[in-house]
Batch of 2 targets.
Target 1
Amino acid sequence: MRALMKTLAASTAVAVLSALPAFAAGGEAAHGGEHAKGGLPQMNAETFPSQIFWLVVTFAVLYFVISRIAAPRISTVIEERRDRVADDLDRAAEFKAQAEAAIKAYEKAVADARAKARAVSDETRRKAKAEADRRRADMDAKLADELAAAEARIASRKAAVLSGLKALAAEAATAAVERLTAINVAAGEAEAAVDAALKR
Amino acid sequence: MFQQIANDPLHQFQVNTILPLKLGSWDISFTNASLWMVIAVLGVSLFLTLGIQRRALVPRRWQLMVEMAYEFVANTVRSNAGEEGMRFFPLVFTLFMFVLFCNLFGMIPYSFTVTSHIIVTFAMAMFVFLTVILVGLMRHGLRFFKLFVPSGVPSWILPLIVPIELISFLSRPVSLSVRLFANMLAGHTMLKVFAGFVVSMMAAGGVFSVMSIGPMLGIVFVTGLEFLVAFLQAYVFAVLTCIYLNDAIHLHEDH
């Protein structure tokens, strides 16, 4: 690249420098010797001191302006922007982390709540079942008691009725025997006979 | 004045005294060349200070151009002369902006192109050249002269290599200055020569006045080209300055 540039520059220089006399001659011809010196104005050494002097002055001023005023200001502005962008990116990353943490916390809360809800519902179901079981047991016991009481009542009534019936049968038997046979059967005998008949 | 410019493509390079001044026996008159140097310096200063004045976080047009110019030169210095070369950033930036504005102001019709004068470009090139030598000697002392003795070259070939390196080194200010000067001179002369063709062909009349559209289009094309050259030559000047400074800072270390 450098070699190429050098070659290019050299060939340009050669071409232009070799063309200079032609230009100069042309200029002179066109002027008809208007300029006392003739030739390229660039080759007029009388202007050199002034050109160099003013180049040094203006270049020094520009160097001062750029190195002391312009360049520091521009670099400050660019640095500030770079810092600001970096800061903003940092803050964005921070916010992102915060958002992610919030999402995690939320998800945890949801999971916790779900677990708690399940626990509560399990507990409730268990309690309800226990209560229902207890009630059924109570009811069963009560019903059994009532059944037993009723059976006892029935038994006692049956016994009472039966005993009444026995006396009645003995009386009826005594009366029947007396009427048929005129034998007066003793009360005890009649009853024993009824019992024997009942047992058969 | 206009008449002369139309007739003589070299008249535009004429240096005219505006205010005669003397410093001892030296003639340091304020000339049109000096005037355009001052204008270029004012232009660069105003561009670089007013453009950045708002210090906006999001730059507008002018600030963006200022920042682009800054970053452009900063990147050029950094990539060619390394991070250490950034010490010379103000110098390279000044050179670039000065040459660029002189070239661009030279594109204004009837203005004066400061950089079309070999003495100006040569003075700047010599300044760069001497800066390089000074920096090299201050950083490396006498080891700086190893620049002319490339490492890894057989010793029997050195008598040939060293003079070549020396000549190539010494011709740097010449090539640096002639490149810029010749580009400006050739481009501006070509523009005026074409313009002269248009005028004389129109004057000839008939078929020639119709054909004068040719050089006219040529002028348009060359004007566009000259804007490119104006920028490119400022860039080349800055890049070569960086490369030379890199030699002074790093010798042949990273080549």
Note: The mean pLDDT of chain B is 89.
Target 2
Amino acid sequence: MNDCVLKIENLTKTYKLGKRNVQPLTNLDLEIGKGEFTAIMGPSGSGKTTLLNIIGCIDKATSGTVLLDGVDIAKMPESKLYKIRRDKIGFVFQNFNLLPYLNARENVELAMELAGKFKGQRKQRALELLGTVGLSGREQHRPQRLSQGEQQRVAIARALANDPAIILADEPTGNLDVTNKQEIVKLLSDLNQKQGTTIIMVTHDEQVAAQTHRMLILKDGKVAEHNQAKNKLPAASKGDFE
Amino acid sequence: MGILSRATRNLARRKTRAVLVIAALSLALTMLIVLPPSIQARQDITRQAVDYFVEINDYVTSTVTLSATEIQCSYPVGFDPEIVFSGKDVWFTQPLMNDTIYSQVLSIPDIINVIPLLRVLGTPDRPYAITGVPLDNASYQMDRTILPTNITAGRNLEVGDKGVVVLDLWTAQMIINPNIRAWLSDTGELVLNETTIEKLTAMVGGTITIEGHEFTVVGLAGESLTTGGAIMSLADAWEITNTTGQAWQYRIFADDINNVNTITARIQSIDPKLEVTSGVSQQNIAEPLKNQITTLTQTAQNNLNQIQGIGLMEIGIAVVAATAIILFLMLYSVRERTKEIGTLKAMGAGNGTILGQFMTEGVLLSLIAAVIAIALSVFVLPLLASLLLPAPVAFGPSIGPVSMSNQTLILYPDGVYFGDDPNFIPGQESNIIAASITPQILLMGLGAALLLGALGTLYPALKAARTKPAEAMRYE
């Protein structure tokens, strides 16, 4: 394994759902190396998004340590966490979450504006990134004038804007048709291979997961390596992914 | 793409909503801008009226008190019966009181002042009376009627005047045209043609000879058949008529109204022939007058209180409305954009950034509304002011039977005229006190709009800033 970019030890997350205590993550350990493209799979409610949110500093662990790029984020207060999110993490969401009143370039620039980068610098970098994700010429389009695949590309460009240590993608292909799905997975895969971007992707889709280096199954609050060969998940477990 | 640009685009996203909110907010802010100067103008109007009534009241009180404690004594006017029956012109005679009577009057207790007045009636050689009045402030302050009250040309007599005279118009006319008798109109006014008026006016500054003495004419007084004639200082009158120490009339002032009757009796006992009259009954006249003025003052004050009450209530409504409009709009906006807030937070926006974003939007909204409100208030001020506030109570140009000065007070819904031109035509700019929008008021309006905008947005913006990113991301 390359240098460790993420090291999780003994992570437990408990929250209340009505009167019931739910514990989606129990004493979870996980290490992700730099430059890895990892897929996390698991049944609905297994805690995939919770895990991703904790790694992404938008949710807090109940106990355990989460070392992101060498910094323990598990016990960090919100007043510091937003800087970690800004500087070290890039999010890609299932619903793209682009700001509808900004065009493609401005959506990408916004991430850099939050990081305090200068205007000229922001614009140039945004145009470069949009070129990287194949959206040259579409920079002035607002999200509603872009296809879903294109919107997800903008979201990926935005996630890359501040050179994050890790990209967290939560069902990035969940809302896409087959063609777009393949293109987005290819884009992520290319970014990983050509630029060495570390990517953790939560997905239901085994074919998508199969494009990654490493597949993890989240079950009963813990992760396990999935050692099946690509595209050969057991048919019996398929239902779990729906 | 700065925070302001994002705020503008966000407002532009929901155009209809933004237009409606800005319209409602502008109306509330217009009320806020228009009301204070309108209330102020009405306050000024009513205060002027009240001040005027208070002045009148003080004057009436002091005058009536003085005249109620004033006692006048003189010998009745007499005439020579032989002349009356001879068919010639009748020349009345005026017996004078000598200084013995003066000393006796002065010895009566409870008297604070005695003003001697001299009147020597006309004769065939001098067909007008000579009136001598003491020219000192103390006497004038006690009884202003000792001097002519309506000077039509030149000036009145003043303290220290010597060798000068004020002529009443009747006398002046007779000096110019000894053979032409002036006509009196039905109302008792002297009828003078323009040529005569010009000639009379030309007399001011000139000299005339009375009883062999030269006098400078300093002024003309309105028609006066009783105390007029040639009016001069008492010292001059005594000298030219050889009557030093004598008086036609004493005006005697008691120290207290309760002593008036005793003093009157004491004076009468000096000489039963004396005509002694007192003003003690004047106080009965004063009461209704003072009551009337008190009622007017009270009415004006009540009116002002009502205007202030309604105005303050409306200001309160405008403040609450403006704040509530922004508060609810921004709360709705925060709720509607929860996911966006989550996204921004996930991208690394701090609480301050989110707070700043929403505060900018709220304040920008109020700023746009304030600009519209400012433009609107300049045009609709009089209309809106008359819709929002009751008009100041109108008292009309004259107040009661008292005419203490030539000031005229006319009240209009949007202003008041207070000046000395009784023929004032409404609409003239001078002396109109009306609500006006000053740059200061506009700045205050702008400031109030920003403050209310900030106030109304603060809670929603804090709520947005404190939103937990994980919860915001789950929000549907």
Note: The CA atoms of residues 85 and 284 of chain B lie 43 Å apart.
